[in-house]
Design goal:
Elements (H helix, E strand, L loop, with lengths): L1 E5 L1 H9 L4 E7 L5 H12 L4 E4 L1 H7 L8 E6 L6 H11 L4 E6 L4 H13 L4 E5 L8 H7 L8 E4 L2 H10 L3 E5 L16 E6 L7 H5 L3 E3 L12 H22 L2
Parallel strand pairs: 2-3, 5-6, 5-9, 6-7, 8-9, 8-10
Antiparallel strand pairs: 1-4, 2-4
């Protein structure tokens, strides 16, 4: 089985990683720094590189925003939960993992994976059922982040939370109804961040297993944020409290 990556960043990051790439297609007229690097790395890794017309690329691509670049790659392989968590605890003093409770929109999943990579998360954990999985659309929106932050599928988010707690993770849930403001909560240490679904938020059972719930301060009248936007804000606060000063001082 193979997947299809579209766009310069997803293809470039796949080449840089250890993912097996079967072949790369480029529109003949495509130019730019990213394209030059794709060509150079493809030659080094001995990846077949084929030039096609824009019309042919439009037929091959699943969306119009392909930027003249497309790659056939091995199917995405979800990582094993135990391996990812144990590695996170070994490598990082205060690891961060994200648990998505029923995110169904692939665009939101891709955006959250991208934010997770930016803010140093060790994994994104998703349910196997009734939730978005990794697809070409998710890969495109994640813009290469899929090659750097592992995605794990689990049968039960609640049981996964229990396991993380046994490994000394604090479980924080983003909840618009909480009285506790995000910036007022101590989020230092190993954290499992729970982000709820687009319409319903965090489910009751999952919410009951969170150590604390936090809400993002808002001044507007609509009273809600897109799930991926909310996730990005929550991730930023956790990053700032744990590792942000190291990054800012570099």
């Amino acid at each position: 089985m193979t997947d299809q990556l579209e766009g310069r960043n997803p293809v470039l990051e796949a080449i840089r990683s250890e993912r097996k790439i079967i072949e790369i297609y480029l529109v003949e007229s495509t130019r730019g720094k990213g394209v030059d690097e794709i060509k150079s790395l493809a030659v080094k890794r001995k990846i077949p590189l084929k030039k096609v017309s824009k019309e042919m690329m439009n037929k091959m691509a699943q969306n119009r925003n392909h930027q003249g670049v497309l790659a056939k790659v091995e199917s995405y392989r979800y990582r094993e939960y135990d391996e990812v968590v144990e590695n996170a605890l070994l490598v990082k003093e205060n690891p961060l993992v994200i648990l998505l409770d029923g995110i169904e929109d692939p665009h939101n999943l891709g955006s959250i994976i991208r934010s997770a990579e930016v803010f140093g998360a060790s994994a994104v954990i998703i349910p196997k059922n009734r939730a978005a999985g990794v697809t070409p659309t998710v890969a495109r929106i994640a813009s290469g982040a899929l090659e750097h932050v592992p995605v794990v599928q689990v049968v039960n988010i609640t049981e996964t939370i229990k396991n993380l707690k046994s490994k000394n993770f604090w479980i924080a849930g983003g909840d618009g109804g909480s009285r506790q403001m995000l910036h007022q909560q101590d989020l230092k240490g190993p954290v499992g961040l729970v982000v709820g679904s687009e319409g319903k938020g965090i489910s009751r059972l999952v919410k009951e297993h969170c150590d604390f719930l936090v809400r993002i301060p808002m001044a507007g009248k609509t009273g809600s944020l897109n799930a991926s936007v909310a996730a990005g804000i929550l991730l930023y606060e956790i990053f700032t409290q744990n590792d942000g000063k190291k990054e800012i001082s570099r």
